[in-house]
Amino acid sequence: MRFPDYRPRRLRQHPAFRRMVRETRLTVDDLVLPLFATHGKGVREPIPSMPGQYRLSTDHLVKTAKEARDLGIPALLLFGIPKKKDALGTEAYAEHGIVQKAVRAVRDKVPEMALITDVCLCQYTDHGHCGILDGRVIDNDASLELLAKTALSHVRAGAHMVAPSDMMDGRVAEIRDTLDEAGFSHIPIMSYAAKYCSAYYGPFREAADSAPKFGDRKTYQMDAANALEAVREVTLDVEEGADIIMVKPALAYLDVICRVREEIDLPVAAYNVSGEYAMIQAAHQLGVLDGRKVMMETLTAIKRAGADILLTYFAMDAARALQG
Ligand code: PBG
Ligand code: ZN
User: Fold this and answer.
1) Which structural domain range is residue 196 located in?
2) Residue 90 has what pLDDT?
3) Is the residue at 143 inside a domain?
C-alpha cells in the first residue's frame, strides 16, 4: 500500500493514537543510577565536568539512594574514590574500602535498593590503569586475581551484583569461580562486555580521578572502529558466565547495541556515559537546546536500539520526567 491509499500521518494526528502505536516505552524500571562514593562525612562535592553530579560521603549517598528509591529507580551503580592509591590498587579490595563502606551503609538504610558495584582497579592504582603493571605493560593474568578479590569483597560487604569494567581477558570466569567458591553462586555479574576505548569517558575520569598516568587504555579497551569484535567479546563473556552484558558508551555505539541485541538472548545494558551526559548538560546551559527533551529522546533511542537496562546519570531527572 502506498500514497494516497496509505497515509502514515493518519496515526500521528491524535495524541492517543501516538500513544497506542508507540513502539518503545521508557520506564523507570529501565534505569540504573551511577553514584560516586567518597570518604568523610557531610561531603556533597559537585563534579565540575558533570553538572548535577556529586561526590558523596556515605551519609549523603544514603540520602540520594532514598530519593532514587522514592522515584522508583531499582538500582544504583557504585563507584569509589579512595583515600590513597598504590601500585596494586589495595583499597579496591580492602575490607573498609570506600565502596565496601558505601555498600554497607546503603544496604542497611535503603534495603529495597539493588546495589551494583563497578569492579575495576583504575580508581585505586597510582598509575591509573585498570589492571596491575609488569613494567609498563598491563599484566592481564596477574590482574585477574585482584579483580576477583575486589568483586568478592564487594559481595561480602553486601553488593547484590558486580559489574567488572576493566576489560582484562578472562575476568568474568575468574570472578564467577571466586564468587561460587565463596558461596555466592546466586550473585549475578553484569559485564562491561563491549567497552570501547572512548574519549567520552573524559568527565568521569575527572570525577573519579582515574585517568591513566601514562599511555592510554588502547591495549585493553576496544577500538571504536570494530563491531564484529563486539559480538566476539560479548559471546566470550556469556560463555564465561555473565548474566547481563553491557555495551559502553551508548550513543556513538547504537549499532553495536542493536547487533548485540540480535545475537544474544541475555539482558543487554547500555551505559550512557559521562561525556554523553556532559554534552547535553553543557548544550542546555548554553541555551542551544532543551536538555530535558534531548535527555528523553536520547534514552528512548538507546532503548529502541535494543538495550533493556540504561545506566545513566540522568536517571533521577528521567524518573521525574516520567512521573510527568
Ligand atoms: C572504570 C570505569 C570507567 C567508566 C566506568 N567504569 C572509566 C574508564 O574506563 O576509563 C566510564 C564511565 C563514564 O564515563 O561515565 N574502568
Ligand atoms: Zn578501570
Assistant:
1) 25-322
2) 98
3) yes
In ligand 1, the atom with minimum distance to the C-alpha of 165 is: 16
pLDDT of 137: 96
Q: What is the pTM of this model?
A: 0.98
Is the Cα torsion angle 214, 217, 220, 224 positive or negative in sign? negative
Low-confidence ranges of the chain (pLDDT < 70): none
CATH number at residue 229: 3.20.20.70
How many whole angstroms separate alpha carbon 131 and alpha carbon 275?
23
Domain presence at residue 9:
no
Q: What does each C-alpha distance from 99 to 27, 56, 93, 107 come to in angstroms?
A: 28, 11, 9, 12
Give a yes or no: residue 1 inside a domain: no
- Could you tell me if the CB of 201 is within 6 A of ligand 1? yes
- Residue 47 Cβ contacting ligand 1 at under 6 Å: no
Give the environment of ion ligand 2: residues with CB less than 5 A: 120, 122, 130
- Catalytic positions: 195, 248
Does 4 sit behind a cis peptide bond, omega within 30 degrees of 0 on the bond before it? yes
Residue 252 lies in a domain: yes
Count of residues making up the chain: 324
Q: How far is Cα of residue 269 from the mean position of the Cα atoms in its chain?
A: 8
Question: What domain count does the chain have?
Answer: 1
Cβ–ligand 1 distance for 118 under 6 Å, the answer: yes
List of E strands, 108-241: 114-119, 133-134, 137-138, 161-164, 190-195
The whole-number pLDDT of residue 118 equals: 98
